[in-house]
Design brief:
The structure is a single chain. The protein is 27% helix and 36% strand. The chain has 138 residues and is α+β, with helices and mostly antiparallel strands. The N and C termini lie far apart (30 Å).
Length: 138
Amino acid sequence: MAGHISKNLETFGNPQPGRDYTIQIEIPEFTCLCPLTGQPDFAHLSLIYVPDRLCVELKSLRNHIWGFRDRGAFHEAVTNEILDDLCALLKPRFIRLTAQFRMRGGISTRVAAEHRMDGWNGSVAAAAADRSARAEQL
């Protein structure tokens, strides 16, 4: 399943490859389908990453995310698939994707997946705290 949409993802060179810094991207309108019922699932995706050599181009990311609209996927699977696609493309120093799925049937789900480059010991604590504070406002 992973990889067939990621052909649409594009990158550009990191303008400051010698510095650790975070990029935060909020995607408040993610949609996929429940693989059991076919009903839509809505989520707010929060992406934070420390780029190495490449950064993701935002329009291509939006188009990639839109590609999930008509696909059935469990919350855990789709979150990890998107993270895998971005890891394969960017090879970032650090990346975390948090998917906050809207309540349906009285249950809401938050799935967080992350990857850290081998040997990278940098910190994303300040950016992660900011992201957490923003997620609580939802």
